[in-house]
Write a structure and sequence with these properties.
By secondary structure, this protein is an alpha+beta fold. It has helices spanning 2-13, 17-20, 122-132, and strands at residues 24-26, 32-44, 47-61, 68-79, 84-93, 102-107, 114-115. The protein has one domain (18-132): Lipocalin. The chain is built from three helices and seven strands. Strands 1, 2, 3, 4, 5, 6 and 7 form a seven-stranded antiparallel sheet that branches.
C-alpha cells in the first residue's frame, strides 16, 4: 500500500514537470529567452531529441484559440548532419516558464524536417543538442 502512495505522489507531480526541469539558458534576443533541458537528450544515431522552452517577454497569441501565450515548451528532433529539425510535441502556456494554464498540447510526431535558418531561435538549441551527442 505504501508503494501505491509513493507512485500516486510521483504521478501527481507529472503535470508540474516543466517547472522541475533543469533549464539552462541560451542567449538569444531581448524578446525571447530560450531554455534547454539537456537531461532530456535522447540520441538515435545522427538524430537527437531534446526539450526546449521559449519564454516570451511580451505575450503572443495562439492563432487557434486567440489566447495569450507567454511560453512554449517543445520536444524537437534534430538531424545533426543535415542541419534540420522537426517539432514532435508543442505545449503553449499562458504563464512564463511553463506556468499558468496549458492552452494547447499538440503531438506532431510525423511532421516534416525543416532546414535550420541562421538567426532563428532554433539555432542555439540545435547547437546545444548536436554538440552534446
Amino acid at each position: 500500500m505504501k508503494k501505491f502512495f509513493v507512485l500516486a505522489g510521483f504521478l501527481a507531480l507529472l503535470p508540474c514537470a516543466p517547472a522541475l526541469a533543469a533549464w539552462q539558458e541560451i542567449p538569444f534576443n531581448d524578446q525571447v529567452t530560450i531554455y534547454v533541458d539537456i537531461a532530456t537528450i535522447k540520441a538515435d544515431g545522427d538524430n537527437i531529441q531534446m526539450i526546449s522552452m521559449l519564454d516570451l517577454k511580451t505575450p503572443g497569441k495562439d492563432p487557434k484559440t486567440n489566447k495569450a501565450v507567454s511560453s512554449i515548451i517543445g520536444l524537437n528532433e534534430f538531424a545533426c548532419g543535415k542541419q534540420q529539425y522537426r517539432p514532435l510535441d508543442v505545449k503553449l502556456f499562458t504563464g512564463n516558464k511553463g506556468d499558468g494554464t496549458l492552452i494547447s498540447d499538440e503531438k506532431l510526431g510525423n511532421s516534416p524536417y525543416e532546414q535550420i535558418v541562421s538567426g532563428s531561435w532554433v539555432v542555439g538549441v540545435y547547437k546545444t543538442a548536436c554538440g552534446i551527442k
